[in-house]
Amino acid sequence: MRFAICGAAVLTALSIPAGSAFALNILLCNDDGVTAANVRALKQQLIAAGHSAIVASPIDNQSGTGGYIRFLQPIPALTGNERGAKALQLPAGTLGVGTDPSDADAHYVNGTPSTACLYGIDVLASKRWGGAPDLVISGPNEGNNTGHINNSSGTFNAMLYAVNRRLPAIAVSDAVTAQVTWSPGLPAGSRAFEVASIVVRLVDALSSQGRHRRGPVLPEGLGLNVNVPNFAAGAGVSLPWRITHVGFATAYAPAFYERLSDSPLAVASGVNYQLPGISLATAGTVLPSGVVIPTDTSSSSEGNAVATGTVVTVSPVQGVPEASGAAIGRLRGLLAPPR
Fold first, then answer.
1. 3-state secondary structure string, 117-137?
2. CB contact at 8 A, 56 and 120
3. Phi/psi at 224 (5° precision)
4. Cα radius of gyration (the chain)
5. Going by DSSP bridges, is the β-strand pair 277-281/135-142 parallel, antiparallel, or unpaired?
């Protein structure tokens, strides 16, 4: 029932006409790094739309690190080999927390996505706006994050940290996995800008609704997991939203292999080792041990919906994985004293 209420609220917000939005203070983070084209294009588009936006991202690509944080450990200096360090020409020994020399509103942390996002929430937002951001956007990621792969996603988990701070937050992931490095000369017709325009349209719809009810962009404790499908150039503007469940449908699921050479994806990637490790398997795969990766055929699961290539999926999520009332009721029955 909680999902139905949240879904209705989101649907109402997305039905508000664009153009009546108001300016927001928006923190952007991601797991692909501070120099990823997607996050920088989104920053540029949000500012053009009248919002204030800053970036707090890892200096390096941290895809697949989930919600990992190194507690009670100082942020290390850069090695100079990180994705962002190379792009920004930052030498080894540079402090692990800093700013793009060419953009005072783009900041990096030599740490995980959740670490960088918390830096933005706890430090940068206060310095820039004198308080918490109105909205946190994680992404757009290079590649979709759907279903149970979300547990491994730095993009998704950075959004959860913000939601658990009671901040409106959105995770956005794009179907295209190509790693494109930002440059001020990136063509206006590039996919990064087209995906950014989709996100700005969503932000404008939600901020209009927030203004209408004189409240935050999203109800407290609610986040959104948004996935953009693969689409032909120029078609992004006409893609409709679809409210979906997270479900557990996903293109790939993490799986442990006693020999990585037993994983077709690992072998195809040139990782043909006779050693144990984690690889990715498609849904329905039978592992060498006989374990079967579960399938999810529901058309309302985000992984299946975005795979159609016809909609942008919007899945309401909570920061804490709380069970439904029905599940709690079943547990009470299981633990009830015998009669």
1. HHHHHHHHHHHHHCCCCCEEE
2. yes
3. -125, 135
4. 20
5. unpaired
Q: What pTM was computed for the model?
A: 0.91
- Diameter over CA atoms, the chain: 74
Instruction: Give the separation between CA 186 and CA 193, rounded to whole angstroms.
Output: 9
Which listed residue (63, 114, 173, 208) is catalytic? Answer: 173
Class level of CATH domain 2-249+296-335? alpha beta
Sign of the Cα torsion 180, 185, 188, 189 reads: negative
Q: Provide the residue ranges of all domains of the chain, joining segments of one domain with +.
A: 2-249+296-335, 250-294
SS3 214: coil
pLDDT (tens place) for every residue of the chain, 339 residues total: 334 434 555 545 554 444 445 899 999 999 999 999 999 999 999 999 999 999 999 999 999 888 999 999 999 999 999 999 999 999 999 999 999 999 999 999 999 999 999 999 999 999 999 999 999 999 999 999 999 899 999 999 999 999 999 999 999 999 999 999 999 999 989 999 999 999 999 999 998 865 545 678 999 999 999 999 999 999 999 999 999 999 999 988 899 999 999 999 999 999 888 999 999 998 889 999 999 998 999 999 999 999 999 999 999 999 888 888 888 898 898 898 887
Annotated active-site residue 289? The verdict is no
Residue pair 198/312 in contact by the 8 Å Cβ criterion: yes
How many CA atoms does the CB half-sphere of 135 hold within 13 Å?
A: 29
How far apart are alpha carbons 192 and 179 in whole angstroms? 11
**How many CB atoms sit inside 10 A of residue 157's CB?**
25
Q: Is the preceding omega at residue 288 within 30 degrees of 0, hence cis?
A: no
